[in-house]
Amino acid sequence: MDSTFAKLWEKSGDQADQIARVVETTQKLDMFFVDKYLRKKDVETRLRESGVNLTYESPFPDYVAGADWPLNYRNILFTPFSGEGSEDAVTHISRFQSECGPYGNDPSLKLRVFGSSLAGSALTWYTKLVPGSIPDWATMERMFRTTFDTVEPEVDLSSLTSMYQQPMKSLVDYLGGGCRSHRN
């Protein structure tokens, strides 16, 4: 009996050591996470005090954001617009409305899903819109076009007649953009 008791005592000692190590590790982890949490809260507080908004707020009113989705609505996979390529805002709006399909005539729904059609600098622009600043689709379209419309150079008869081929330039270079205006 004494040997059985000794074996049990030995096992309980090993278990006690294991339990002590688990408790010590748990305390270290707790301190690590508490420290990490406090540092995160400190950073958040400093950012908030400097005027940085830590949560995204929709640029359109709550009644638009909180509206029910149409019956049987399915997410739409939009062709992204980044504002960095050759596509202009008018083309994107036209394609966006087309890709909305049967929902293309629902201004509130277009307003809610428009951000899903943006990428890159256009998405950055969208996320920085002032909360509640876009009351309706017409305003969103106007602001988007104002920001991302490309200005095509105006070509009139006067500018065309003032163009000439520079000396020592081939016709291919001239037609490919090597022409100059008399005004230059």
| Largest sheet strand order | 1-2
Q: What's the end-to-end separation, in Å?
A: 111 Å
H/E element sequence: HHHHHHHEHE
Specify the biggest β-sheet.
2 strands, antiparallel
- The rough form would be described as elongated
Average pLDDT confidence is 78
Strands, count:
2
Share in helix? 55-70%
Number of helices: 8
- Summing up helix and strand content along with how strands pair, one would put the structural category as mainly alpha
Report strand %.
under 5%
Radius of gyration: 32 Å
Give me the oligomer status: single chain
Give a structural overview.
By secondary structure, the chain is an all-alpha fold. The chain is 56% helix and 2% strand. Strands 1-2 form a two-stranded antiparallel sheet. The termini are far apart.
Descriptive terms for the model:
2 strands; mainly alpha; 8 helices; two-stranded antiparallel ribbon; single chain
List the helices and strands and how they pair.
Elements: H1 2-49, H2 62-65, H3 89-99, H4 107-113, H5 120-127, H6 137-148, H7 157-161, E1 163-164, H8 171-178, E2 180-181
Antiparallel strand pairs: 1-2
